[in-house]
Amino acid sequence: METIQEILFALVFLSLLATLLSGFTLRRHRARRSWPAVPAQVASVQFFQDTDSVKAAYTAFVYLTYKWQGQTFTSGKLHDARKVFSSRARAEAYLTAHPIGQPHTIRVNPREPSDAVVHSVDPHFAALFYRYSLPIFVLALVSFVTALLLG
Fold first, then answer.
1. From start to end of the chain, where are the E strands?
2. 51 φ, ψ to 5°?
3. Which of 70, 81, 108, 140 measures 20 to 30 Å from 92, CA to CA?
């Protein structure tokens, strides 16, 4: 019976963790959707090959400039500004698809204008995960308490 309790406790812990993480992701996405949209353009691109890893990895950076309240920002913190690829050709194709001067629309954090996003995290996965992890957490918790009470 003790092994079942340990398994149920692990399930309670993992499902609680999944519920909290997906809820946080959804909350962050909803906050970003409320940020003002501003025009931006590609300012520069960079390409790096990771030679330290066992498997080849190619990192492409796209930096955008945008103006917020008269001040110009160039940000590499943008979501989707950094992408990692397993092939050099895909990384180069990504950079080719983002030529210097290409327009974009981004959302700017009004409290911290250097914080901006091109695309916020896809909420569909987080919403789906949240929708199913919460009932699993409740079911696991009830099962765990029942196992404890039954001894």
1. 37-50, 57-68, 71-75, 82-85, 103-108, 116-117
2. -95, -5
3. 108
Establish if 120 belongs to a structural domain: no
Token pair, residue 110, equals 């009004």
What pLDDT sits at residue 124?
62
Decide if 115 is inside a domain.
Answer: no
What one-letter code names the amino acid at 4?
I
**CA 46 to CA 24: how far, in whole Å?**
31
Total number of domains constituting the chain: 2
On whether residue 142 sits in a domain, the answer given is yes
Domain housing 20:
1-35+129-151
Comparing CA positions, the residue from 121, 139, 110 lying closest to residue 34 is: 110
State residue 88's pLDDT score.
86
CA distance 138 to 84: 37
Spatial CA neighbour of 62 closest among 48, 77, 42: 42
118, with CB counted inside 10 A (0-12, 13-18, 19+), is: middle
Confidence band of 127 (pLDDT split at 50, 70, 90): low
pLDDT in tens, 43-100: 988 888 887 767 778 888 888 899 999 999 987 655 556 778 888 898 888 888 889 9
